[in-house]
TrEMBL record:
It comes from Hibiscus sabdariffa. InterPro entries: Glyco_trans_1. Residues 11-30 have a biased composition (Low complexity). The chain crosses the membrane at residues 84-106. This is Glycosyl transferase family 1 domain-containing protein. SUPFAM superfamilies: UDP-Glycosyltransferase/glycogen phosphorylase. It comes from the Eukaryota. The lineage of its organism: Eukaryota, Viridiplantae, Streptophyta, Embryophyta, Tracheophyta. Keywords: Glycosyltransferase, Membrane, Transferase, Transmembrane, Transmembrane helix. Residues 50-65 have a biased composition (Basic and acidic residues).
């Protein structure tokens, strides 16, 4: 092979003379530390046919030595007499090759961390499916993939939409440190604000970044543990949690009704990922389940790179998603450069400034057997490098550093064994044998290198210092990365020229010859050319300095634009935008392409800045669960010790049992000898019937019920779900009204709305009616539950939105009711949009606000329902006029009125709801709701119209409307009756007319004359008319006469048969 190669000589056995003589030369002088024979496992043979004759095979250590001169054969290089330029090019080959094999050793430990015993079968299937040249990637589940691809938001822009406010987002901050994580989140929030999002920040604690967040024109408040359950998360279109520290606050989002609020959880820490294998080894499955429950609640969990979701694979429930991009690498490089110098690091590690340090790095993630593919590919570089080994244009001392794995003896030994195989016999590098470990210095000595030419550093050490020492960084991984390699970003941030394979993900952001130097994978010629471009006379060339400078400038904001647009895309495709919300701007409108470095410049320049990310909640939960286990074990031991019976205790128990048996037998004998009178049958029957009467529940009349005795008013707070309990009030003025039996408070006398109105058992109608369904349940036989002259209602939302009555306002309300005369509606939660209406171009009226809340169809739907309710002709106006003044209107079902007026309102509401349901059922698309644009709005189709219905009824029925300021208790009458007489439609809201209509419907229901298949009206309350009253009176009279007849017959029977009193003395 080659022009100067002579034919190989054969020995007496027909084998090539001198084969493996390099091994003999290196090992025959050391009998104790020589290489062990590998003949028994993998015999090396030139001709496979010779393996049949084992008597002619020789051990590798038994081959006769040959003269020490350079010689080549068809198998490759046998000896290495390299110096100078030859040594440099061979070191390039050796560094890349050795790094690949060393990285292979690292993969096993990472694999053990990722795939524990519970995942062995899954890991085995992955190994069987992967082949050389393939790569392992994180593939998101169906839902996260839809988040990235979208497809459901653009049609909303093409429809007519009336919005008054921007979409609200809540951000929960685990800490307020000035670190790369805060820089990323601040940049994203500022960009999303430009698209129209409105943010409210909830901080779990104060910190250095507080001033930055407060200056972002956002609402800001602190959130303590006692406040977790007092936040109305339904006010927001979505919630963003920024770290693992927010886990406890997320628990409040797991209960109904907040379990449907979209939650985005950003996780940038690996603290929990490192502890998960430990939990499994220790058997702490309950702790893993606790974390998995929290992870399951999130609609999507966002990671900044593709390694973290693999580390957290034990907790993956299909909601993992990756948005690449974080300033942590650039931040870390700049902060490290402020406090460390290159010459000091080289001096400390034994390098001089004249050395040319080449750092070989690779993928931060390896998996079983995949790195062997890379090693096999690198083995072919050897002969190609030798073609250029005769060039002598490089001078200087070259040092090669491998940055991989960790700083343990296992990784160093793997590198040393690989290098020794390469020295002794390159063709046997991939054989599995036993080779004694030697030091890196011994390897270098065998190669003729100076001491310290080859070194290994672990990623668990000072990786920043290793990067800062380097002159050139070679990215040596053969696996195509799914995300941009972070080590390349950090190297560029240090201002180091980078040589990397031309992977698509890297070519997407870097330009060849401008920001780095590319070479085709497994192309040795291109790799040599890349090195030659960066080196000139043993130093970095001007081209290398230009590449390093351009790369450093680019690394400053690399992936920033992708990160911002990624978050915007996730929000657009995850959130629901109600009818009154303005749609955010398009993702294409984002122009931000850099991080907000100017807000964090001082922290980067700070000497003692700490950018490490740790999670105290992980360790706190560990201590809590460990303490629970210890206490439980201790209590069990104490109970066992206390329950242990002594011999004296057993004798005492036996004596007590014998005495009880003796007494029982004696009493039985006495009872048998005594004559007993069973009594009169009527008395026995009467006592039995009394015992069968149902008893009241223990919580039927508690202290609150006793306190309400004699009061004029009771306000029913409507709720459904345990998450709403903290928003409910306690005391004599309030009483809970639960729309769900499962979510009813057990320690209070809350009214069971489902038990009073069976219609609410149907979740479909319960969602359609919302709080009005609870009002219908109270109105149904109101005398059995409410016997006070005044009645009020309040939604749990009032407390969440800070518009519930204060103590002072409650006193004002009670005092005002005592001296009130006539029908008055007192309300304290008014219809507004948090001041957004003041900034709109058009004045907001009652009907315009109703349209905003109902997808623009409030007026049309109300008019059609009103027309059907009163059977009005089509050419007649059917939309009740409402004034366009600046007065307040009631909302959130928070009002008080006389009980008699409430029953009239309930009568009107039942008929209106029935007409509304008839329109909904008779539409061309059954089940389609035109009063909502999102899934939740369509599910609660009637709720927003019914919430405003009390205003129309009170206005046109002539009731006074008085607004109570919820905090101060100030009273202010709205829309005076004298000013609205000419606008009122009093004839349609007259009590006599409504009562007649109600009786007509009741008669039709009594006669089973249903106007449609599913008639809602009879199911919403009492069905009563004069005919039913007369029939009930006749039934009562019949029962009364039957009772008299039976009593008379019983007396006659006694008189006929006689009745004799038994003597008392016998």
């Amino acid at each position: 092979m080659g022009r100067n190669s002579s034919p190989p000589r054969l020995d007496g056995n027909g084998n090539e003379n001198g084969k493996n003589n390099a091994i003999n030369n290196n090992c025959d002088n050391n009998n104790d530390q020589g290489l062990y024979s590998i003949r028994d496992r993998f015999p090396l043979k030139r001709n496979p046919g010779h393996s049949r004759d084992r008597t002619k095979q020789h051990s590798l250590l038994e081959r006769p030595p040959v003269r020490n001169r350079a010689r080549f054969n068809r198998k490759g290089l046998l000896h290495f007499p390299f110096r100078g330029i030859y040594l440099f090019y061979f070191l390039i080959f050796f560094s890349v090759f050795a790094f690949a094999v060393a990285s292979m050793v690292m993969q096993s430990s990472i694999t053990v961390t990722l795939f524990r015993q519970g995942e062995r079968s899954w890991m085995r299937s992955i190994r069987e499916g992967l082949r050389f040249g393939s790569s392992l990637k994180f593939m998101p589940a169906e839902n996260p993939r839809l988040l990235a691809e979208g497809g459901g938001f653009d049609p909303m822009r093409s429809t007519d939409r009336i919005g008054i406010r921007g979409p609200r987002l809540a951000v929960i901050l685990g800490n307020m440190k000035k670190n790369p994580q805060s820089l990323m989140l601040v940049t994203v929030v500022k960009s999303l604000q430009r698209l129209g999002y409105v943010f409210k920040i909830y901080a779990l604690g104060s910190g250095e970044a507080r001033a930055i967040w407060e200056n972002l024109n956002v609402q800001f408040s602190f959130l303590g543990p006692e406040q977790f359950d007092h936040i109305d998360w339904s006010l927001f279109e979505g919630v963003i949690a920024d770290s693992l520290e927010t886990k406890e606050s997320i628990s409040s989002l797991m209960q109904e009704p907040f379990d449907t609020v979209p939650l985005i959880w950003i996780i940038q820490e690996d603290t929990l990922a490192k502890r998960l294998p430990v939990y499994e080894e220790m058997g702490l499955q309950h702790l893993v389940s606790n974390w998995k429950t929290s992870f399951t609640r999130a609609n999507v969990i966002l990671f900044p790179d593709f390694t973290l979701p693999m580390l957290y694979s034990m907790l993956d429930t299909g909601n993992f998603h990756v948005i690449p991009g974080s300033p942590v690498d650039v931040w870390g490089a700049e902060s490290y450069s402020k406090t460390h110098a290159k010459h000091q690091l080289r001096k400390y590690n034994g390098f001089s400034m004249d050395d040319m340090v080449v750092l070989v790095v690779g993928s931060s993630f390896f998996y079983d057997e995949l790195s062997w593919d890379y090693a096999v590919a690198m083995q072919t570089i050897g002969p190609l490098l030798m073609r250029y080994a005769r060039r002598n244009d490089v001078e200087g001392s070259f040092k090669f550093i491998f940055l991989s794995g960790n700083s343990t003896d296992g990784y160093n030994n793997a590198l040393q064994r690989t290098a020794l195989r390469l020295v002794c016999c390159p063709s046997t590098v991939f054989k599995i044998d036993v080779i004694p470990c030697v030091s890196v210095q011994q390897v270098a000595s065998r190669l003729g290198l100076t001491q310290g030419s080859v070194r290994h550093y672990g990623l668990d050490g000072d990786a920043n210092g290793v990067l800062l020492m380097a002159d050139i960084v070679l990215y040596g991984s053969s696996q195509e990365e799914q995300g941009f390699p972070p080590l390349i970003i950090r190297s560029m941030a240090f201002g180091i020229p980078v040589i990397t394979p031309d992977f698509p993900i890297i070519k997407k952001y870097l330009a060849d010859g401008t920001h780095c130097v590319f070479f085709p994978k497994n192309n040795p010629d291109a790799l040599l050319r890349a090195f030659s471009l960066l080196i000139s006379n043993g130093r970095l060339s001007r081209f290398a300095e230009t590449v390093a400078s351009s790369g450093k400038l680019l690394s400053k904001n690399i992936l920033a634009s992708e990160c911002i647009t990624g978050y915007a895309s996730v929000l657009v495709n995850l959130l629901y935008f109600p009818s009154d919300v303005l749609l955010p701007g398009s993702v294409s409108e984002i122009k931000q392409g850099s991080w907000e470095w100017n807000l964090f410049r001082k922290e980067i320049e700070h000497v003692n800045v700490d950018i490490s990310v740790d999670s105290s909640v992980v360790h706190a939960l560990e201590e809590e669960f460990a303490k629970h286990i210890i206490d439980k074990s201790k209590n069990r031991t104490e109970i066992q010790d206390q329950d242990a019976l002594t011999a004296q205790d057993q004798d005492l128990v036996t004596e007590i049992e014998n005495f009880e048996d003796y007494e029982r037998l004696e009493m039985e004998e006495i009872n048998e000898r005594t004559e007993r009178d069973l009594g009169v049958w009527d008395e026995i029957y009467r006592n039995a019937r009394k015992s069968e009467k149902p008893t009241f529940e223990a919580n039927e009349r508690d202290e609150g019920e006793l306190e309400r005795t004699g009061q004029l008013v009771c306000i029913y707070e409507i709720y459904s779900g345990a998450g709403k309990w903290p928003f409910l009030h306690h005391g004599s003025l309030y009483r809970g009204l639960s729309l769900s039996r499962r979510a009813r408070r057990l320690t209070s006398d809350d009214v069971d709305a489902v038990g009073r109105l069976p219609l609410l058992n149907d979740t479909y109608y319960r969602d359609l009616l919302c709080e009005v369904g609870g009002m219908f349940s109270i109105a149904n036989r109101v005398g059995s539950i409410h016997k006070r002259p005044w009645i009020g209602f309040q939604s749990w939302h009032a407390a969440g939105r800070k518009v519930s009555l204060s103590t002072e306002a409650e006193k004002v309300l009670e005092e005002t009711i005592q001296r009130s005369k006539g029908d008055v509606l007192y309300f304290w939660a008014c219809l507004d949009f948090d001041g957004e209406g003041e900034r709109s171009n058009h004045a907001l009226t009652f009907w315009s606000m109703c349209d905003m809340l109902n997808a623009g169809h409030c007026r049309t739907t109300f008019e059609n329902a009103f027309r059907m309710m009163y059977n009005l002709p089509s050419d007649m106006e059917a939309l009740p006029p409402m004034p366009q003044d600046e007065g307040h209107w009631s909302s959130l079902h928070s009002w008080v009125m006389p009980t008699k007026s409430f029953l009239e309102f309930a009568m009107f509401s039942r008929m209106f709801v029935d007409s509304l349901d008839a329109l909904h059922s008779n539409s061309s698309e059954p089940g389609m709701c035109f009063l909502g644009s999102t899934y939740l709005e369509k599910k609660q189709c009637y709720c927003r119209v019914l919430e405003l219905l009390v205003n129309v009824w009170a206005y046109h029925s002539g009731r006074r409307m008085v607004y109570i300021e919820p905090h101060s208790g100030l009273l202010e009458e709205q829309h005076p009756v004298e000013q609205r007489k000419e606008f009122m439609w009093a004839r349609y809201f007259n009590f006599t007319l409504l009562k007649t209509m109600d009786e007509d419907l009741a008669e039709a229901a009594d006669d089973d004359d249903n106007p449609r298949k599913m008639w809602l009206w009879p199911l919403t309350g009492e069905v009563h008319w004069q005919g039913i009253y007369e029939r009930e009176r006749e039934e009562r009279y019949r029962l009364k006469m039957d009772k008299k007849r039976k009593t008379k017959e019983k007396l006659l029977e006694r008189m006929r048969n006689g009745y004799r009193q038994r003597p008392l003395g016998l």
